[in-house]
Design goal:
34% of the residues lie in helices and 19% in strands. With 643 residues, it is of the alpha/beta class. Among the domains are: 86-269, UDP N-Acetylglucosamine Acyltransferase, domain 1, CATH 2.160.10; 289-425, UDP N-Acetylglucosamine Acyltransferase, domain 1, CATH 2.160.10; 515-636, 3 Solenoid (UDP N-Acetylglucosamine Acyltransferase, domain 1), CATH 2.160.10. It is globular and about 80 Å long. It comes from Adineta steineri. Residues 1-54 form the Carrier domain. Pfam families: PP-binding (PF00550).
Length: 643
C-alpha cells in the first residue's frame, strides 16, 4: 500500500486501529495511545512519530514509588456486620412507613415522601458528615458517608418531582448545602450535599454529576467541597469532581469534566419551533419545556415497562408529531419525549443505543433557553451515552461513538465516524453495512404484556408467602438461579419473564446494596469473577456477568459501565473484559468488550476505552477515546477560553 495514504483511505476501521496499537505497544514502544494514530493517520507519519518515542521510552520511577506505597499502606477490610446492619436499617426506613400507612393510616400516604426526605436530613445532622475527614476505605468515616449516600440515592425517587424549583433548594439547604434560593438545580446525582455551595443565578442541568468523593491511589478516600459562583451554567452530563472552586460567570459545556480552580468569565468545553428562545421561568419555558420534563421524570418507571427497541416507540413519537420513518430502533423513548417532538426527524434505519440523551434546550450567553430541530439521517447510529444538542444535523450512515457530544457546530458527511467532546471526525471508516443481518430483536406487544403479568404475579406471590425478609431471600435465590441459566433458554416468552424478574429484583433490592460487599457477592452469584475488597456503586456498573474478571481493590464510581457486548451495525457480539488489581474507574467512564486493564490504572470521568484495547499497568487515562495523561495535555481538544 501507499505509505502516504491515510488509514481511512486504506479501509481501516476502529478495530483495525486498536489491533495496530496493540502490536506497536508489544513490539516497539509502550508509551503511546490511540491519539498518536489519529494525529498521524498514514504509515509514513506514524513511523516518523514513533521513532523518537522508541528512544525516549524512559523507565517509570514514579510508578515504582507508587507501588511501594501500596505495599506498605495498611488496608482496612470490609465490615460484614456494619454493612448488614446498615442495609437492614435502610430497608426498614424505606418499607416500614409504607406498610404501616397501608395497614392503619391510608390517608397519610401523601406525607410519605416528607417522612423519607426528613429522615435523610435528620441523619445528615446526627452523623456529623462535616466531620468526615480523609480516611481509609472501609473505615468508620467511610461507612458514615456510605449510609447517607444510600439514603440519598433512595430518595431520588421523590426528589425528581421537585427538580429546578425553590422547594428543592430549600431541601438542599436543610441537608447542609449552602446555596442561594435563586438557583436552578436539575440533578440528583450528589454524593455529599453538605459540601455543595452555590451563589445566585447559577444553573445546573440534568444528569450532572457533583462528585465530592474521590478514591486515592493509596486505598484512602477524601471528600472535597464543590463551590460554584454566581451566574454559572453547568451543561448536561458534566462531571464536577475532586474539589471544584468555580468563580462567577462561567459556562461549562455539556459532557465536560471539571476539577480544581476555574477563573471567572471562562468557557470550559471538553472533559416548539426551531430557533425559538425562552427566558428562564417564563410562561413559554414552563409550558413547553419544564412541564414536559416534569411529566417524563415523574413517570420514569413507566418507561421501563416496555422492552428496549419496542416496536411501539416509533408509533408513539409519530402520534406526538415527530417525523419517524421505517426501520427505526430506539433503546429507550423517555429521552425523545423530553424534548418537543415536532422538532425531531428520524429517517429510515436510525439506531440509538442505551444512554443516548436528546438535549431539549441549550443555554445562550444571555441566559435564555433555545430549542431547535434535530435531524438524524438514514442509517445513523448513536452509541452509548452520547448527547445530541439542539440544531444537530447528521448525514446518512453517520456513526456516533460512545460518550460523544453532537451539536449544531458538528458538520457531518455521509459515512463519517465521530467521537469525542466536542465531536471530531475519526480517521477510519465503518465496515460495509450488511442489509440482511439485524440481530436487534423486536418483541411482540403481547409478549411484553404476558411477561409483565406473569413476573408481577410471581413477585406478589413471593412476598405474600415469605414476607419482607423471607420474600427477599427467595427473590434473591430465584434471581441468581435465573441469571445463571438465562443464556440456555431458547423460548422468547420465558426469557422475557426471567429478565423481568431480574429487573424487578434490581429495582427492589439492589438499590440498598450499592458500595457494599453484598453487591459484590451478588455479582459473583450471577457468574462474575471478582476479587476482594472491590467497591461498586450500582448494579448497572457491569453487564454480561459471565464475561467479567475484576481483580482486588478495584473502585467503580457512579455511572461507570463495563460491558461485554456490543451491537455493531445491529450485529450482536460478545467479548470478555479483564480489570486488573487496584484500578479506579471514575464517573461515567465506559470500558468496551475485549478490553484489558493490566492493573493500577485510573480512568478519569467521561473516559472511553475502545473495544479490544489494552492499558499498560500503572497508567492514568482520560478522554474519548482514552489518551494517556502523559500525552493528554498536548493532544487534548478540551479548551478553556475567555468569554
Amino acid at each position: 500500500p501507499r505509505i502516504e495514504s491515510s488509514f481511512g483511505q486504506l479501509g481501516g476501521t476502529s478495530l483495525g486501529a486498536i489491533r495496530a496499537l496493540t502490536l506497536i505497544r508489544q513490539q516497539l514502544c509502550t508509551n503511546i495511545d490511540i491519539g498518536l494514530l489519529f494525529a498521524n493517520p498514514s504509515i509514513r507519519q506514524l513511523a516518523q512519530a514513533i521513532e523518537p518515542l522508541m528512544i525516549l521510552d524512559a523507565p517509570k520511577e514514579t510508578v515504582l514509588t507508587t507501588n511501594q506505597s501500596h505495599e506498605t499502606h495498611v488496608r482496612f477490610s470490609p465490615s460484614f456486620v456494619i454493612e448488614s446492619v446498615g442495609i437492614a436499617l435502610l430497608v426498614c426506613q424505606w418499607f416500614l412507613p409504607i406498610m404501616v400507612i397501608h395497614r392503619w393510616c391510608p390517608f397519610l400516604f401523601p406525607v410519605l415522601p416528607v417522612f423519607h426526605l426528613l429522615f435523610y436530613a435528620i441523619c445528615s445532622h446526627l452523623l456529623l458528615p462535616r466531620n468526615i475527614n480523609d480516611d481509609n476505605v472501609f473505615s468508620w468515616s467511610f461507612y458514615r458517608w456510605w449510609f447517607l449516600d444510600r439514603l440519598w440515592n433512595n430518595n431520588t425517587f421523590w426528589l425528581q418531582h421537585i427538580l429546578g424549583t425553590p422547594l428543592y433548594n430549600y431541601y438542599l439547604r436543610l441537608c447542609g448545602a449552602r446555596i442561594s434560593l435563586n438557583t436552578h438545580i436539575y440533578t440528583t446525582i450528589i454524593d455529599a450535599p453538605w459540601l455543595l455551595e452555590m451563589d445566585d443565578g447559577s444553573w445546573i442541568a440534568n444528569e450532572t454529576y457533583l462528585n465530592c468523593l474521590y478514591f486515592n491511589d493509596d486505598d484512602t478516600f477524601k471528600l472535597s467541597p464543590i463551590r460554584i459562583g454566581s451566574n454559572c451554567s453547568i451543561g448536561t452530563r458534566s462531571i464536577l469532581f475532586d474539589g471544584v472552586d468555580m468563580q462567577n460567570n462561567i459556562i461549562v459545556q455539556p459532557m465536560s469534566s471539571v476539577t480544581g480552580f476555574v477563573a471567572s468569565e471562562t468557557i470550559v468545553d471538553g472533559p416548539c419551533a426551531a430557533g425559538e428562545i425562552y427566558p428562564i421561568a417564563s410562561r413559554l419555558y414552563l409550558q413547553k419545556i419544564w412541564l414536559r420534563q416534569l411529566i417524563v421524570s415523574s413517570f420514569h418507571h413507566a418507561w421501563l415497562l416496555p422492552t428496549g427497541y419496542d416496536y411501539l416507540y416509533p408509533y408513539v413519537l409519530r402520534w406526538l408529531g415527530a417525523h419517524v420513518e421505517e426501520n427505526v430502533k430506539l433503546a429507550g423513548i423517555d429521552t425523545f419525549l423530553s424534548c418537543p417532538t415536532n422538532l425531531l426527524k428520524l429517517e429510515m434505519g436510525v439506531t440509538t443505543f442505551g444512554g443516548v440523551l436528546i438535549v431539549p434546550t441549550e443555554l445562550t450567553l444571555t441566559g435564555d433557553h433555545r430549542v431547535d430541530q434535530i435531524v438524524l439521517g438514514f442509517h445513523t447510529n448513536l452509541g452509548n451515552g452520547c448527547s445530541i444538542m439542539p440544531g444537530s444535523y447528521l448525514e446518512s450512515e453517520t456513526m456516533i461513538g460512545n460518550l460523544t457530544r453532537i451539536s449544531r457546530e458538528t458538520k457531518s458527511k455521509c459515512g463519517e465516524v465521530f467521537m469525542g467532546v466536542p465531536a471530531r471526525t475519526m480517521p477510519f471508516q465503518m465496515p460495509p453495512r450488511l442489509e440482511i443481518q439485524d440481530q436487534i430483536e423486536i418483541i411482540p406487544f403481547w409478549h411484553t404484556c404476558l411477561s409483565h403479568y406473569v413476573s408481577k404475579c410471581l413477585l406478589l406471590s413471593i412476598y405474600s408467602f415469605g414476607g419482607l425478609v423471607g420474600g427477599s431471600v427467595i427473590h434473591t435465590i430465584l434471581a441468581c438461579s435465573f441469571c445463571r441459566c438465562c443464556s440456555y433458554i431458547r423460548y422468547q416468552v420465558i426469557e422475557q419473564i426471567i429478565t423481568r424478574m431480574i429487573l424487578d429484583y434490581a429495582q427492589l433490592i439492589c438499590s440498598f446494596l450499592g458500595n457494599t460487599q453484598w453487591l459484590i457477592r451478588l455479582f459473583r452469584a450471577y457468574g462474575a469473577h471478582i476479587g476482594e475488597n472491590v467497591i461498586m456503586s450500582d448494579i448497572s456498573n457491569i453487564t454480561d456477568y459471565h464475561l467479567m474478571t475484576i481483580g482486588d481493590n478495584v473502585r467503580l464510581h457512579v455511572g461507570t459501565q463495563i460491558q461485554g457486548h456490543s451491537f455493531e451495525q445491529r450485529i450482536f457480539k460478545l467479548a470478555p473484559v479483564s480489570i486488573g488489581n487496584s484500578c479506579v474507574l471514575m464517573s461515567y467512564s465506559i470500558v468496551m468488550p475485549g478490553c484489558k486493564l493490566m492493573g493500577n490504572n485510573r480512568l478519569y470521568p467521561l473516559t472511553l476505552i475502545m473495544k479490544n484495547d489494552q492499558l499498560p499497568p500503572d497508567t492514568h487515562w482520560k478522554g474519548v477515546p482514552a489518551l494517556s495523561t502523559y500525552n493528554y495535555l498536548s493532544a487534548s481538544h478540551t479548551s478553556i477560553r475567555s468569554v
